[in-house]
Structure formats: structure tokens, C-alpha cells
Design a protein that fits this description.
There is one protein chain. With 131 residues, the chain is mainly alpha-helical. The chain has a single domain, classed as Winged helix-like DNA-binding domain superfamily/Winged helix DNA-binding domain (Arc Repressor Mutant, subunit A). 44% of the residues lie in helices and 6% in strands. It has five helices and two strands. Strands 1-2 form a two-stranded antiparallel ribbon. Helix 1 packs across helix 3 and helix 2 packs across helix 3. The two termini are 29 Å apart. The relative contact order is 0.17.
């Protein structure tokens, strides 16, 4: 088992790339530069940037000094926005089963899953300005 929290490569790349762009607010970063820094595929990163641009989180700057920039103030961009630009709406499950009908009253894990879900929401609701 790799882990309970399963976040796709695309979302992971998106969150790291967005944080990288946030550290260079006024300097566009090319896909190639970001891919090299993050040690990810430039082709995959290019698709991620396209989705982030479509969501209005980043914008492309054309020209010889072009690349990508954060499109909104850092205080307005949450990690959840970045995640949902790639994955769609965040869906947290209160049960490890596909259907939460195990026939047992109460969860054998107690409040663990609810606590984990709350921590995930708290982390993903952080703004780029807080990271």
C-alpha cells in the first residue's frame, strides 16, 4: 500500500509548479525551466500549465522572455484551486469501502477518516501567500 492519500502526478506537478511560479512573481518561467527544476516531464508539465491557464490560475507570456506567471494575487489562489483545476471538485470519502454499508454500527477506525479529511481540507485551503 502506497498510502491512503492518493494524489495524481498531474495534481502534484500542478501544485509544485504553481508554488515555483509564486516564488518568481514577476519573472516568467518557461516550461523547460520549470520541468528541469521540478525534475518532471516537460510534456506533462505543458499539459498541466494549459489546464491551469484555462482555470485562470496562470497565464502564458509570449516572446523571447516568455513563459508562465501566476495570474492572480497569491492571496487569492488556494491549493484547492490548483488541485481542482486538474482533478475537478475535491471529493472526500468518509469510508474506505466503495459503498459505506459494511453492516457494522460505527466505523472501526472511529473518527480517524473524518480527522484526516479535515486536515486535508485545511491544508488545501491554504493560499499560495501562506506557503
Amino acid at each position: 500500500m502506497i498510502g491512503i492519500l492518493n494524489i495524481s502526478d498531474g495534481s502534484t506537478i500542478a501544485m509544485h509548479a504553481t508554488l515555483l511560479l509564486s516564488k518568481h512573481k514577476d519573472e516568467p518561467i518557461t516550461t523547460a525551466e520549470a520541468a528541469e527544476t521540478l525534475k518532471v516531464s516537460a510534456a506533462h508539465l505543458s499539459k498541466v500549465f494549459q489546464r491551469l491557464a484555462k482555470a485562470g490560475i496562470v497565464r502564458a507570456v509570449r516572446g523571447p522572455k516568455g513563459g508562465y506567471l501566476i495570474n492572480r494575487p497569491l492571496s487569492e489562489v488556494k491549493l484547492r484551486d490548483v488541485f481542482e483545476a486538474i482533478e475537478g471538485p475535491m471529493k472526500l470519502k468518509p469510508c474506505l469501502l466503495k459503498e459505506p454499508h459494511c453492516g457494522i454500527e460505527g466505523c472501526m477506525l472511529g473518527s480517524l477518516l473524518n480527522n484526516i479529511n479535515q486536515q486535508v481540507v485545511q491544508q488545501f485551503d491554504k493560499r499560495l501567500s501562506e506557503l
